[in-house]
Design brief:
The complex is a heterodimer of chains A (462) and B (571).
Chain A: H1 2-6, H2 14-33, E1 37-41, E2 51-57, E3 64-65, E4 70-75, E5 80-84, E6 89-94, E7 101-103, E8 107-112, H3 117-154, H4 159-167, H5 185-194, H6 212-226, H7 248-260, E9 265-273, H8 275-284, H9 291-305, E10 311-312, E11 320-321, E12 327-329, E13 331-333, E14 336-338, E15 341-342, H10 350-365, E16 379-383, E17 402-406, E18 410-415, E19 421-434, H11 440-455
Helix pairs in contact in A: 2-3, 3-4, 5-6, 6-7, 9-10, 9-11
Chain B: H1 2-18, H2 23-43, H3 48-70, E1 83-88, H4 92-103, E2 108-112, H5 118-123, H6 125-142, H7 144-150, H8 161-186, E3 189-192, E4 196-199, E5 202-205, E6 213-222, E7 226-228, E8 241-243, H9 244-247, E9 256-260, H10 264-275, E10 279-284, H11 295-306, E11 311-315, E12 317-323, E13 331-337, E14 343-349, E15 351-354, E16 358-360, E17 386-388, E18 394-400, H12 411-425, E19 439-441, E20 446-451, H13 454-464, E21 469-474, H14 479-483, E22 490-495, E23 502-509, H15 512-515, H16 517-525, H17 529-532, H18 544-552
Parallel strand pairs in B: 1-2, 1-6, 2-3, 6-18, 8-15, 9-10, 9-15, 10-11
Antiparallel strand pairs in B: 4-5, 5-6, 7-16, 12-13, 13-14, 17-18, 19-20, 20-23, 21-22, 22-23
Helix pairs in contact in B: 1-2, 1-12, 1-16, 4-8, 4-12, 6-8, 6-10
Classes of the chains: A alpha+beta (462), B alpha/beta (571).
Cofactor (chain B): FAD
Keywords (chain B): Chloroplast, Disulfide bond, FAD, Flavoprotein, NAD, Nucleotide-binding, Oxidoreductase, Plastid, Redox-active center, Transit peptide
Active site (chain B): 539 (proton acceptor)
Chain lengths: 462, 571
């Protein structure tokens, strides 16, 4: 992250944020130079501890400490523990007061070796503690910067969009026009855990309240939307033999992939003849209709007849029948992945749907997708046909009931019922579904309907 | 000693009756066996009281029959009364007093304007235990980790709200009818109507629209209990803004409920609601959640009962205004800072439960007729529950027990106070030691306590100049707890190392509410640590947590085994 932020690509704000970075760097440098002032870190008292609360300081500033003496009582998620000093010296400066919370590994106090260094340490603690709030502020700034990059890259309307990212957050009818975030207790807890900024989450609960599933959905998508634009399309040389930790986004993806393992899923495949669809596409392509929109439309129309395939299982006890059919379509972007959503794809006509799709893709490329544009899908389409893939298997995104993997439509030799051999364009689709709510027969019936619609696509254009 | 022993077990004794179809047998049996058996061991008393109590009982039954026949001629010349004892209010306190009065041979009547059983049985401890039993089982079934550790496989646990609500209601009905039957069978007259004191030793009662009856009694006990306290600015509609009275009916399980107050009631309901799938926001006026508990226990309880659950909280705030949901708007709660009174926040939730404590139910009691003025609604009493009038004098023959006097608002405390009053009116002076009365919060796991908290003990120690010792044991070391895979918990003993006196015991862990009685009985009986630590506990049982606790206390060698402990303290 620091690399990204330090590039000259950030035009005006780079000078603003330099202090915080050099602040943290400078700290470690000065540590090497004068090792006599040591930092006391927030210890990890349990494997699950991410932050600790200072219960009480057993020593005050200026007190002499001997090695092994208890300095501070820290409250973790499990217990209160005394923290001992590893070194001898003087408690020069307390950086996190009693009752304060600090992440594991961050400095909570400074230890001076001699009494003379106390003043110096104090001065240091002030400079570094003043940099701390800046670190906290980093997140919202990133979002702004992400938006600010846009004019440079795309010369699109800039400032209003940037505003929309922040303001178009949880608009709760009674939350004073979105000034206040209304989120349920569990949603708040999750947001903290998954490091999701609630300001960027759109609530789907009663009266637009943010509930747990909104945060979960945002946890996957937010990093994609919020991370600053890549400075340049470098093909970063992968250093062999190294271990590279996940970025936040990769972490979120990983979490979701692992989470998907808890869903009992199965797959049903189908081969669909696309000659009619191809012909239709050829006919209306000039009007801006895209294949993705056609497929989304066909899928949505099939879902109308099979609402169970559009359902999902949220709590392990019930079917959640979604009121609208929102087709999420996976799009590879900057090495990442995002799923712009065609909302109400069953109701919107194919031309509008195509325009909408183009708009979404543009927005996704410009990283301007708003949360509700990528996390409200009820059924997902993943199409690798353009790469010549003829069949594959998709992983079910958590919170949805089914995902359809679409392969390439290819000319195939087929035997017809009357005993002849002919050539037809065929594509294979493969649906992965949550078997708690969607059963084999449901998928079979759905696919049959879908095949019928694709093979006789007149309904797609109304 | 006799009466102290009595009061501590009075409640279990009467509970036993509830479950028995044969009250006469039931009452003589458990009382004799439990009380006297224990006393025999502890103090070497013989079976003298045993047989005498039996004798009193039988004669009392004959007696009551006789008097109830004569009660028809309702002339009340001085010194001749309709009853020996009239109790206004048939809650747990009134019931406990009535049963003991009958045993002591008193002709007893109990006046009840609503349903027998009072708050505890109908709108309090009893139905809430039914809901908590459900929440405990749900929690267990939902805890995949816990089930897996035991090698169990359970497919999705679910519940039927109406079924749960019915369970609570049926339990209340059953206990109520048990309570009524136990009093009827013993010959307690149950007079229906609202009781009002019209003068010394004189009570009127009657239903609305019917002529009042006037009855006289040698002694009168007020046991009218309490109602949920609703601070001003809060509009209770019974649907979205509710009190415990409504919540116990479980007419809905909201997605998000704010609970105002984090004491026993709020805590127990948070346990129920979160187990049934709600998310909870606590609103607490003090700076800490669970303000009434020993701080260490409260902290641990917060780690287990609050932090990992779908609960958040606002502390140090008052809810100044709560508006029920209407016209598509949610429940709106306005919060101000408890200290600065500045507006702090506004919450929008689906429901709000007001659990800010309970207010005495003493309106219309006719206290003015005996020159008594309530204090914030509470009837002023001395340490013997005798009512005090405006001039600071005792009102003869008038007592007040339970929530109405506000000393210790617990059902079993009311019952113990009632028994104490009956002891006094039957000629034995008696002061109840409130520090021996245990209290419990039936969360999962449970919290229980008796006596002083550590800060209270330290304050007292400083004032009186003694040392305080603290011993702790963990449930993690207990075999039975580990077998249940419920090792989370702590027991804490606060004591005097110089004398071995137990000042307080606090338990947080599996079945803590049942475990506390070894400690509360020890306090009530004045048993010292150096003696009780030799008592044997079955292995492996949870009770060994307390065994360990007593054994880990460091009582000074000089402390004698049989000296007097400090006198019982009246609150």
């Amino acid at each position: 992250m620091a690399n990204v932020l330090q590039t000259s690509f950030l035009p005006s704000t780079s000078s603003l944020r330099r202090p915080s970075i050099s602040g943290s760097k400078g700290k470690s440098q000065s540590l090497q130079v004068k090792a006599k002032i040591r930092e006391i870190f927030m210890p990890a008292l349990s494997s699950t501890m991410t932050e600790g609360k200072i219960v009480s300081w057993m020593k005050s500033e200026g007190d002499k400490l001997s090695k092994g003496e208890s300095v501070v009582v820290v409250e973790s998620d499990k217990a209160d523990m005394d923290v001992e000093s590893f070194h001898e010296g003087f408690l020069a400066a307390i950086m996190v007061e009693e009752g304060g919370v600090a992440p594991v590994g961050s400095a909570i106090a400074l230890l001076a070796e001699t009494e003379d260094e106390i003043a110096e340490a104090k001065a240091k603690s002030q400079s570094s503690s003043s940099s701390t709030p800046q670190v906290v502020e980093e997140k919202p700034k990133q979002i702004e910067e992400a938006a600010l990059d846009v004019p440079a890259a795309a010369a699109a309307p800039s400032v209003p969009v940037a505003k929309a990212v922040t303001l178009g957050s949880a608009v709760h009818p009674a939350s004073e026009g979105g000034k206040r975030i209304v989120a349920s207790p569990y949603a708040k807890k999750l947001a903290k855990e998954l490091k999701v900024d609630l300001g960027t989450v759109v609530g789907s609960g009663p009266l637009g309240r943010i509930v747990a599933k909104d945060v979960e959905a945002a946890a996957v998508a937010v990093p994609v939307a919020a991370s600053p634009a890549k400075p340049d399309p470098v093909a970063p040389g992968i250093e062999l033999g190294t271990v590279v930790p996940f970025t936040t986004m990769q972490g979120a993806v990983s979490r979701n992939m692992v989470e998907s393992l808890s869903v009992p899923r199965f797959r049903v495949g189908y081969t669909i003849t696309t000659n009619a669809l191809d012909a239709l596409y050829k006919k209306i392509k000039s009007k801006g209709v895209t294949m993705t929109a056609l497929l989304a439309k066909a899928t949505a129309l099939a879902l109308v007849q099979h609402p169970v395939v559009n359902s999902c299982c949220r709590d392990g006890n019930s079917f959640t029948y979604n009121s609208s059919i929102n087709i999420a379509v996976a799009v590879a972007i900057d090495g990442g992945l995002i799923t712009p959503v065609l909302q109400d794809a069953d109701k919107v006509d194919i031309y509008t749907l195509s325009r909408k799709w183009k708009e979404l893709v543009d927005k996704a490329r410009a990283k301007q997708l708003q949360p509700h544009e990528y996390n409200t899908g009820t059924f997902t389409l993943s199409n690798l046909g353009m790469f010549g893939v003829d069949r594959f298997d998709a992983i079910l995104p958590p919170g949805t009931g089914a995902i359809m993997a679409v392969g390439a439509s290819q000319p195939t030799v087929v035997a017809s019922k009357d005993g002849r051999i002919g050539m037809k364009n065929q594509m294979q689709v493969n649906v992965t579904a949550d078997h708690r709510v969607i059963y084999g027969a449901d998928l079979a019936a759905f696919l049959q309907t879908l095949a019928k619609i694709v093979e006789d696509p007149k309904d797609l254009t109304f | 000693m006799h009466s102290i022993c009595f009061q501590a077990t009075g409640v279990p004794g009467s509970n036993y009756i509830f479950d028995s179809c044969s009250p006469a047998l039931a009452i003589s049996k458990p009382i004799n066996l439990r009380f006297c058996g224990l006393r025999k061991e502890a103090f070497g008393f013989s079976g003298l009281t045993h047989s005498s109590s039996g004798r009193v009982r039988f004669s009392s039954r004959g007696h009551s029959k006789k008097v109830s026949a004569s009660a028809e001629s309702n002339g009340s010349p001085p010194k001749s009364f309709d009853y020996d004892l009239i109790i206004i209010g048939a809650g747990v306190g009134g019931h406990g007093a009535a049963l003991h009065a009958v045993e002591k041979g008193l002709k007893t009547a109990i006046i009840e304007g609503d349903v027998v059983g009072g708050t505890c049985v109908n709108r309090g401890c009893v139905p809430s235990k039914a809901l908590l039993a459900v929440s405990g089982k749900m929690r267990e079934l939902q805890s995949e980790h816990h089930m897996k550790a035991l090698g169990l496989q359970v497919s999705a646990a679910g519940y039927d709200r109406q079924g749960v609500a019915d369970h609570a209601n049926n339990l209340a009905l059953k206990i109520r009818s048990n309570l009524t039957n136990s009093m009827k069978a013993l010959g307690v007259d149950i007079l229906t109507g609202v009781g009002t004191i019209v003068g010394p030793q004189k009570v009127k009662y009657g239903k609305v629209g019917f002529p009042d009856n006037i009855v006289t009694a040698k002694n009168i006990i007020i046991a009218t209990g309490s109602v949920p306290f609703v601070p001003k600015g809060i509009e209770v509609d019974g649907k979205t803004v509710i009190t415990s009275d409504h919540a116990l009916k479980l007419e809905s399980v909201p997605d998000w409920i704010a609970i105002v107050g984090s004491g026993y009631i709020g805590l127990e309901f948070s346990d129920v609601y979160t187990a049934l799938g709600s998310e909870v926001t606590f609103i607490e006026a003090l700076d800490q959640l669970m303000p009434g508990f020993d701080p260490e226990i409260g902290k641990l309880a917060q780690r287990v009962l609050i932090n990992p659950r779908k609960i958040d909280y606002h502390t140090g705030v008052f809810a100044t205004k709560i508006t029920p949901a209407k016209d598509g708007k949610p429940v709106i709660i306005e919060l101000i800072d408890a200290k600065t009174k500045e507006p702090k926040d506004t919450l929008e939730v689906d429901s709000a439960l007001i659990a800010t404590g309970r207010a005495p139910f003493t309106n219309g009691l006719g206290l003015e007729n005996v020159n008594v003025v309530t204090q914030r609604g509470f009837v002023p009493v001395d340490e013997r529950m005798r009512v005090i009038d405006t001039n600071g004098n005792l009102v003869p023959h008038l007592y007040c027990i339970g929530d109405a006097n506000g000393k210790m608002m617990l059902a079993h405390a009311a019952s113990a106070q009632g028994i104490s009053v009956v002891e006094q009116v039957t000629g034995r002076d008696h002061v109840l030691n409130h520090l021996s009365i245990p209290a419990a919060c039936f969360t999962h796991p449970e919290i229980s306590m008796v006596g002083l908290t550590e800060p209270q003990a330290r304050e007292k120690a400083q004032k009186e100049g003694f040392e305080v010792g603290v011993a702790k044991t963990s449930f993690k070391a207990n075999t039975k707890a580990l077998a249940e895979n419920e090792g989370e918990g702590l027991a804490k003993l606060i004591y005097r190392p110089d004398s071995g006196e137990i000042l307080g015991v606090h338990i947080f862990g599996l079945h803590a509410a049942d475990l506390i009685h070894e400690a509360s009985n020890a306090i009530a009986l004045g048993t010292r640590i150096q003696d009780i630590k030799f008592a044997v506990h079955a292995h492996p049982t949870l009770s060994e947590v307390l065994d360990e606790l007593f054994k880990s206390a460091k009582v000074k060698a000089a402390a004698s085994s049989h000296g007097p402990v400090s006198e019982p303290v009246a609150v």
